[in-house]
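Writing this down once: the sequence line spells out the residues, with the fold written below as integer tokens. This is how one looks:
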Amino acid sequence: MIKIVKNNLGDSRTADRVPTITEFNKANSAHTNDVQNLMRHVSERVMQRAYSHDYTKIQEPDRSMFYRDLCNTIEGNMNFKDGEWCKIHYSMERHHLNEVCPDDVDFLDVIEMVCDCICAGMARSGEVRPVEISSEILQKALANTTKKLSGMIELVGE
């Protein structure tokens, strides 16, 4: 949990009186620190996602299944998205939002998808194709991210 000390004096919408300059400075410093703490937590979660990205391509038996389906597709024997591995990959990896969007989709999923699309495009063809995510998915990700991050906050008294 990230503890945030309640202090309404740093914002004209919530202040019940004019703060002293010392109170004002304290409120602003506390707010900046709170945002840094929450963003640090988000950054750690982004890094966790980075380290586990595409784990179904590197762990057995999934890696062998991926290789088999890739080879069969290149040889013209199958459509890659119809393969056994692809179905497993889409169901287990959260970042393929246009194929299987999790109910609790969040901006970590969006960030991972965008990074995946950029890196895959550059490595494979030298260009980035347009990344498209529906407004519905993005709005759901916004609501879920707000809920998840709000749930990490513990408000403590002044």
